[in-house]
Every structure is written in structure tokens, then in C-alpha cells.
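Lab notebook, bench 4. The sequencing result for the construct came back, and we need a structural model before the next group meeting so we can plan mutations. Quick request posted to the team channel:

Model the 3D structure of this chain.
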Amino acid sequence: MDFRLQRMLSAYTKEDPPPNRVKPVPVPVLRRIFHVAATMNDAYFQCLADMIGLAFFFLLRPGEYTNSPSDSTPFEFRDVQMFRGQQRLDLATASDAQLLTATFASLTFRDQKNGVKGEVVGLGHSGDPFLSPTKILARRIIHLRNNNAAPTTPLCKYFTATGSKTILPKHITESLRDAVTFLGPALGFLPSDVTARCLRAAGANALLCSNVDTDIIRLLGRWRSDEMLRYLHLQAAPLMSDFSRRMLAGGNFTLIPNQLVPVY
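Done. Here's the predicted structure in C-alpha cell form:
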């Protein structure tokens, strides 16, 4: 094939949406995963659930919250900040109780794709005792700190009696599909419709259902469809502090099923 035609057809495929896009999972799927993690009392399941929750709240790509070969890097211990009111906590010396009662938490973008280097994105406590960005980051910091992890340790790393491992995208996909299978076709989509990539869409859809302005959603998700978004700042805490609570409220939705979803 002529090289010019190859380039043209390649450009067409990038412009056209994929025929089978991943579905945004609703909050009940996340709650199911967190429930399983709580009953298992296992470092792997706890880290897996926490990474799923983190991806949902911060609209993350798989390369930002799992160990994945991509042009992005996962967030690390040193990228986290936690606050109790106006007080910024010292993650090295703060007690577990202080971390678990934090009211605000943030992640700093270092080498993540489409993130402005050095920009800080923060969210407030959702009000949920488990499914909350502050609780999730507190649990990860406590786990890493208890295992003498270095500041450059990825948040997706967990420690067991036999050593350390990291969460991979396939682990996220398997967990999501198990939860969707358990909840059944009432969700409006099939387990095969979800992968690790769907959590970014899930968080955005939850914000949209909560009537958050689309420009704010694009800003939080680092979608640069409008160059002006580069001049807006997510570090304004009052703007972000209520989003996690609204995401949990707006994330309870179902999809209109297609013909492949069985009747229940």
C-alpha cells in the first residue's frame, strides 16, 4: 500500500471512535469490590480495591495507578499530600489515626501523561468510611510506611510475608469483571464491556450525572480539547473539596442494555 494512503487511513482510525468503547462502571460495582476486599483481609485485595477507587476519583489512566508499560508512570508515595483542615500532615510522623481522619488529600503530577508537571490535584473526604480518596490514600501510606517503603515506591505496590508485588492492569480488569458478573445484567452491560480503562470514564460520568460543568470535568481529567484549560488551576481547594461526595451520589446509574445483554 502506498505510504501516503497508510498515513491517511491511520489518521482516520485515530479520529473515529472505537466500535466497542468500554462502559463506565457505576458506584455499586466499586462498592462490591471494596466489600470483597474488606472480607478478605489480604494485602493484594486491599491494594487492588484502593487502586480502583483512586482511579475512579482522580480519573486516572491505567499507567497512572498500575504497573503498566505505557508513556505514563504510576503515582508514588512522595506524590501524596494529606491535610486535616488547614494542617498539612507529615506523612513520615503522623499517626495512623491522623491519616485516617484527613479531610483532604492530593496527588502531584510528575511524569504522568497530559499532566502539567508539578500540578497538584486534590479531593476532599467523600463522607464514606471506605470509598473516599482520603481514606484510600491514608491506607496506602500506612501500608507502605509500615513496610519501610522508599518515597519513590509506587502506590500500586503491596507487601506480603513473601515479598512485594505490584497491581497490574489485568488485575484491575479481572476484579471489575468479577464484580459486574456478580451484580448481573441489571447494570445494563456485560463483563466483557469493562477493562482497567473504564474507571477514568466512570469517574467522569459520575461527575456529569452530578451536574458538574463539563469544562471542570475535562480539567480534572486532563483532556486538552480546549487549549484554555492549560490556564486553569485545580489547586483551588474550595473548587475540588466537594467533588468526591458528589461523585458517590452521581455514580449510581444503570445503562440501557443492548441486544447482547440477557433478560433478567
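The chain has one domain: 21-250.
Will bring this to the meeting.
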